[in-house]
Specification:
By secondary structure, the protein is α+β, with helices and mostly antiparallel strands. The protein folds into two domains: 89 residues, no CATH class; 73 residues, Nuclear Transport Factor 2, Chain: A (Roll), CATH 3.10.450. The chain is built from six helices and four strands, in the order αααββββααα. The protein has a four-stranded antiparallel β-sheet with strand order 1-2-3-4, covered by helices on one side. β2 and β3 form a beta hairpin. α1 packs antiparallel against α5 and α2 packs antiparallel against α4. The protein is elongated, with a radius of gyration of 26 Å.
Length: 177
C-alpha cells in the first residue's frame, strides 16, 4: 500500500476516533487559559491588610461558616486551605466548590464565590469521568493527536519535497539567486 494513502486514511480515521475527547480538551483548555481573567471560571484573588497570619484556625472556620452557599458546618466540610501570605488572605475551599477568601489578619470575609476551575481541570484531564479515563481515553487521544500532527506535517510537506526532488537542488538554488 502507498504510504501517503495509508497516512491519509490514518489521519482521517484517527481524527474521527478522538473527536469528542479532543474537543473537550480544547474547550476546557481554552477556559483554563483565561481563568485568571474571567471570574466565572475562577474568582479573582483579593488582598488582605497584612502579610502575616494572625488569626487562628477557629477564626477562619467561623468566618467561612458565615457563608451559607459554602455549606460549611465543620472542618469536614472543607476540602483545602490555600494560604497566600503575599496577598494577605487564606482561600477556604468547601467540598461543594465554593471558595471563601478571608483576611489573615482581621478574619474578615473578603469574597465568596463559586469556583469552576477545578471542575474544568478535572474535565480537561478526564479524571471527572473516572480515574482510569485519564489513562484509557485521554492519554491515547493525546497520542493520536500527536500522531495526527506528525502525519499532517508529513502530508503537508510531502508535495513540496516531491517538487524539489523533481526540479533538483540546482534548480531550486538557481531560483533563489
Amino acid at each position: 500500500m502507498n504510504l501517503r494513502i495509508g497516512l491519509r486514511k490514518w489521519h482521517r480515521w484517527g481524527a474521527i476516533v478522538i473527536a469528542a475527547p479532543f474537543l473537550l480538551v480544547i474547550v476546557t483548555g481554552l477556559l483554563l487559559q483565561v481563568k485568571k481573567q474571567w471570574s466565572w471560571v475562577q474568582p479573582p484573588t483579593k488582598r488582605g491588610v497584612g502579610k502575616y497570619p494572625t488569626v487562628s484556625f477557629d477564626t477562619i472556620l467561623q468566618a467561612a461558616q458565615q457563608i451559607e452557599q459554602a455549606q460549611i458546618d465543620s472542618w469536614q466540610d472543607i476540602e483545602r486551605l490555600d494560604v497566600r501570605p503575599e496577598r494577605g488572605i487564606v482561600k477556604v475551599r468547601s467540598r461543594n466548590d465554593w471558595e471563601v477568601q478571608i483576611d489573615i489578619q482581621t478574619g474578615e470575609v473578603l469574597q465568596s464565590a463559586y469556583r469552576r476551575s477545578d471542575l474544568i481541570e478535572a474535565l480537561h484531564d478526564g479524571s471527572w469521568f473516572h480515574e482510569q479515563a485519564k489513562l484509557w481515553i485521554f492519554l491515547p487521544s493525546g497520542v493520536v493527536v500527536l500522531t495526527l500532527w506528525i502525519t499532517g506535517i508529513y502530508l503537508f510537506f510531502l508535495p513540496e519535497w516531491v517538487k524539489w526532488k523533481r526540479k533538483g537542488p540546482a534548480a531550486v538554488t538557481a531560483n533563489t539567486k
